[in-house]
Design goal:
Blueprint lengths: L5 E6 L2 E6 L10 H16 L5 E6 L10 H5 L6 H20 L4 E5 L2 E3 H9 L2 E5 L3 E3 L14 H5 L1 H10 L4 E2 H6 L5 E3 L3 H17 L2 H17 L2 H17 L3 H13 L1 H10 L6
Parallel strand pairs: 2-3, 3-4, 4-6, 5-7, 6-9
Antiparallel strand pairs: 1-2, 7-8
């Protein structure tokens, strides 16, 4: 499969997967998601790769799902909404399902669907200055993979998701358990730290790493993680098929004045932008 929107390389036993749409802050459209899933599967199938680092080219890890692409997509029926939401869900959860350990090395922006990708990875390290957020409620959509409550508990999850906060810094993310470590510096430094962690994982006994990751993930799955995520996805499909004044106005501004104007309107209504 071609790699127009993702780059891969290997450093010793570590595979490096790089989101590569820097001109749009590595936003994910359907083609980019398909390429990333295929690249991750190729690393998973390669016996020489024992751990995987995930990061983004340019100024950001990723701004999330591509809003310009979504504006042109036919979402006129519930079936079409469901198919798209399931595509996005499967992309995010491919990082959770991956049998080899994944380390997200994030910088710049880590937003929405990309935030959920970072949550789905086994470890996350963040450069100082990284901005995290899930702003979906601010323009009438919802969370595709409801992983956050499993990572931080309901109080922190509700604070972030019900306000649509998209200005959480790396230090706060580390305090509440979203990030393992904050790395001084920028993209080069955080990638180097991600590679160091992945190399340490790769140096450990392969079967021990494989079965330990499986045991930890199975613990959450036995507690009901998959059933809860699927139930949340069903709700998200209903939400995305349900009209609202906010969604309509955001869509109108995006069509008539462009995405930048729509985002400015979205953010102007909240106290963290005043």
């Amino acid at each position: 499969m071609s790699q127009e929107f993702v780059k891969t390389r290997r450093e010793g036993p570590v595979g490096i997967l790089t989101f590569d749409r820097p001109e749009v802050l590595n936003a994910f459209h359907n083609e980019a998601m398909a390429e990333n899933v295929a690249a991750l599967a190729a690393f998973e199938a390669d016996p020489a790769v024992r751990a995987i680092v995930v990061h983004g080219a340019g100024r950001a890890f990723s701004a999330g799902f591509d809003m310009k692409a979504s504006a042109t997509r036919d979402m006129s029926t519930v079936d079409k909404v469901q198919a798209q939401m399931e595509r996005q869900f499967d992309f995010i959860m491919s990082f959770w399902r991956c049998e080899k350990p994944t380390v997200a090395a994030v910088h710049g922006f880590c937003m929405a669907g990309a935030f959920e990708v970072a949550l789905a990875c086994d470890l996350t390290v963040a450069a100082e200055g990284t901005r995290f957020g899930e702003p979906e409620v601010r323009f009438g959509t919802g969370i595709v993979a409801m992983l956050l409550p499993w990572m931080v508990g309901p109080k922190h999850a509700k604070e972030m998701l019900l306000t649509g906060n998209d200005k959480m810094d790396a230090r706060r993310a580390a305090e509440i358990g979203i990030v393992n470590e904050v790395v001084p510096g920028g993209p080069d430094e955080v990638l180097a730290r991600g590679l160091q962690l992945a190399t340490d994982i790769a140096a450990a006994a392969g079967p021990s790493v494989f079965f330990t990751k499986r045991a930890i993930n199975r613990t959450y799955e036995i507690m009901g993680l998959w059933d809860a995520l699927k139930a949340s996805l069903d709700i998200d499909v209903i939400l995305n098929a349900t009209p609202s004044e906010e969604k309509a106005e955001f869509g109108r501004l995006r069509r008539e004045q462009g995405l930048k104007a729509a985002l400015a309107w979205r953010d102007s209504r909240f106290s963290d932008n005043r």
